[in-house]
Amino acid sequence: MAMVDNKDNEDNEEPAPGGASSNWITERVARLWLSYMSAEAGPDGSERIAETALQGAPVLWLLGKVQSGKSSIVKAITGASDVELGTGFKACTRTARIFDFPSEAPLVRFLDTRGLGERGYDPAADLEVARQKAHALLVVVRAMDPSIESVVDAVASVRRLQPDWPVVVAQTCLHEAYAPDEGHVMPYPFREGVAETGSVPGELIRSLDYQRRLFEAVGGRGPMRFVPIDFTQAEDGFEPRYYGFESLLDALAGAVPASVATTLRQLQASGLDRLRRRAHPRILGHASVAAAVDTVPIAGTLAVPGVQARLLQVLARIYDTAWDRRTLLTFAGCLGGGILVRLLAGFGIRQVVKLIPVYGQTAGAAAAAASSFATTYALGQAAIAFLAGSSKGKVDAEEVTRAYRAALTKAFDIERHGNTAGGERSTTQDAP
């Protein structure tokens, strides 16, 4: 676990990278981070950040029988490990549990209903949990399962109470209809849930159509989208392993508000190693919290540095290392005095602007939120460049600076245009 060690002997301190002119600001920033880390090190700091994130995190309500593939979908969307899934779900009603991802600063919540196989399942309690935050109903059924009446009845109950809620029906385990030694049809052949090629097994087409008619008979005003998918393990031998993943994201994007769709896209990060994949959603989560707290005049003055300090601690824990005065000095020195001065000066100016009547509470607050998101995101990316290098015994200061600048540009792009944090969309129908 990452610890904060502020007991270094100042007299034995090695100078941070950079000339004498930058050492003063580097020293001050390192001291600032260290002080906030000490203040945010306890459970109260973590809880405050998590609670702030939960206020804006969308809820996807998963409805489906056991072994229908719900956990596989959560894993594909979030990139979470089996361990995280196993320990992350917490009971919230008698028949449902909830998974906040990532737990430190949740970007999305998954409400998983477990009572569909029970006779007389009543979704009222689960509906009450989802009522305030749910943005979509994600129904999960095995494509070749003919006995889905309990799921259809549950969807009908929800639609009667919430007729405008969008519904996405994920029809899973397509390979159960394949002949021996048969693989996925490539390219992905389904459009709006309907096969566009005769290469798809006829038995599978008939079962998908049968399930579709059952759900469509439920009624309701909100859109209902269908997407056949097949998420498998490496040992199953099917490629791609996450067949139809992009179509699932597209279906969800068409069912939820644009802000929620952007969040789901941001979770995807292609081509990252294991540690960076763990770090990526945590950076996004803390950046979102920084944006949220910086919309309030003055409050951000105290809150945003605390969020950033907590992020640095979370990242250090991922890389199995610790921040102390010496390493914080080195990290700040890698960023350079120019970046640090602009970061601090810009933050102070934003707080003053927010106090201007009318303008400060509108454009000023919006600008502050965008800037806090971007700088927190960039600081996180620079930190993992530093920590990755440190773990290998060699830190490249220029690489840390490049990581910060590139991430800053990308973060503002996310804010302005809703682009994904993970880069270009995949065309392989596989999970990133």
Salient structural properties:
single chain; 432 residues; alpha/beta; Rossmann fold; 2 domains; seven-stranded mixed β-sheet; two-stranded parallel ribbon; 15 helices; 52% helix; 12% strand
Describe what this molecule looks like in 3D.
With 432 residues, the chain is of the alpha/beta class. The chain has 2 domains: 4-52 and 272-417, no CATH class; 59-256, P-loop containing nucleotide triphosphate hydrolases (Rossmann fold), CATH 3.40.50.300. Helices cover 52% and strands 12% of the residues. The protein is built from 15 helices and 13 strands. It has helices spanning 20-40, 43-56, 70-78, 82-88, 124-131, 149-161, 202-216, 245-253, 258-266, 274-293, 299-318, 325-335, 337-353, 360-391, 397-417, and strands at residues 4-5, 59-64, 89-91, 96-101, 108-113, 134-142, 167-172, 190-191, 194-195, 224-228, 230-231, 242-243, 323-324. The strands form 4 sheets. A 7-stranded mixed sheet has the order 3-4-5-2-6-7-10, with helices on both faces. A two-stranded parallel ribbon has the order 1-13. Helix 2 (43-56) packs across helix 10 (274-293), helix 10 (274-293) packs antiparallel against helix 11 (299-318) and helix 14 packs antiparallel against helix 15 (397-417). Residues 1-21, 296-302, 349-365 and 419-432 have low confidence and may be disordered.
How does the SSE layout of this entry go?
Layout: E1 4-5, H1 20-40, H2 43-56, E2 59-64, H3 70-78, H4 82-88, E3 89-91, E4 96-101, E5 108-113, H5 124-131, E6 134-142, H6 149-161, E7 167-172, E8 190-191, E9 194-195, H7 202-216, E10 224-228, E11 230-231, E12 242-243, H8 245-253, H9 258-266, H10 274-293, H11 299-318, E13 323-324, H12 325-335, H13 337-353, H14 360-391, H15 397-417
Parallel strand pairs: 1-13, 2-5, 2-6, 6-7, 7-10
Antiparallel strand pairs: 3-4, 4-5, 8-9, 11-12
